[in-house]
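[job 4417] fold queue: 2 targets
>>> target A
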Amino acid sequence: MSENKLPSGIDRVVGQRVRWRRRELKLTQERLGELLNLTFQQVQKYEKGVNRVSAGRLFEIASVLGVPITYFYEGAADFVDHENAQLAEDDDAHAPIMNSETLELIAAFQKIEDVSLRKSLLNTVRAAASAFDTKQHD
């Protein structure tokens, strides 16, 4: 694979969003693969950002998952800004690791329609995380 064909941070963001949506719909990698005429290993590689998703394939994935193509790029600009900052400090920057608990939290949070409730919950989580960081440094 040539240097310019290697998956980038955007590929990892797109893959992560594919995974989030698949899990939100309670589809297995095998089932999504069947719907797209792919093997589950191909789906897995897309989700991990190991393989790039072509424009045509992304269109198919969006159709099967019932979301607009733009869904897969939500948060990508923030990730790229973060990744570029990391690269300036360290040549070995990685995408954040999302475990199943984190994905469930995000999915549940996105379902909350009340904006003030979402903001309140976010502030609570930030405060809890901040308190935890302080305890570790004491």
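>>> target B
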Amino acid sequence: MLKIRAKEWLYILVFALVLGISIAGFTSSLYNYNPFPFLLLGLLTTFYIFTLSFFTTEINNRFFIKLLPQFLWTPFSLIFAFLSGFLGALAGYFSNSLLDIIPLNLPLKKAIILSFFLALMTASLGYLLYKLVSLQRKEEENKRLLLEEHIRNLERQISPHFIFNTLNAVAELVWQDQERAEEAILSLARLLRKSLYLEPFISLEEELELLKDYWNLMSLRFKGNISMDIKIEDEALKVRVPKFSLQILVENALKHGFQLERGNIAIKGYKREGKVFIEVEDNGRGFEKLKEGVGLSNLRERLKLCGASLSYWSAQGKTTFRMVFDEV
């Protein structure tokens, strides 16, 4: 079953109108008649055929196709396209008889024959358009599969990076405080269990839940010397972000900004001028030139896949990492 999108129906309508105008213009030129009545009749007939094609296609996709085996989908669709062309052409013929748009001395029998051939043309064009749309769908599906595979490769890269860094932090606790080490391992298990079943891109609201688990885990290590403030506007909560994006930025602040000593991390999320901004700011030691490691370079790549960007700067005793997303 191939569903036609609204934008594609618009293209089909434009194509049909151009074809109708062309046939009408050719016919009027052939008999040296005033072209405007022919153009009017051509547009009217085209509109009838398009309208019938639209409704029969939608009805076919919604009801009949579901009841038929797959090998009958194409023949059944062609029958509907043929009927749309045939009935639309007859509707144009009867409209001309009622409105007297052009002086056609055409018997009904000949009108039926002409409608039959016009229906064959409609079915042929319908089949051609079906093939073109099918090829476009296959290309879109191939691009989607390639993108998903790329995302999975990136996730396979970031997950071990995240887990190894966290396990290193837990390993230090084993020698310092076994109870806190046990609590840290349980916190890590909860975090991994939650993240395991999430998609590569999740809502900021879900990402914050993962961050809280991660923060509980890391707090066991730095004993509350580093605080974290979160201020997210409600409008920003639904934006979709790469999984573990906030953890990577917070981890960068803990590791490079504070070296796990003391300080404050502020996380902000807000919407301005059709964009959603997410910032992670720390008052650590800062940097003059930052060399991106695995985490940051991986995050930048994943942000590109969802049309977002990453920037950062260090000034006046504060370091800021900013992710910018399109409007939700």
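[job 4417] complete. Note on B: The helical segments are 6-31, 35-67, 73-99, 108-176, 178-196, 204-222, 245-257, 294-305.
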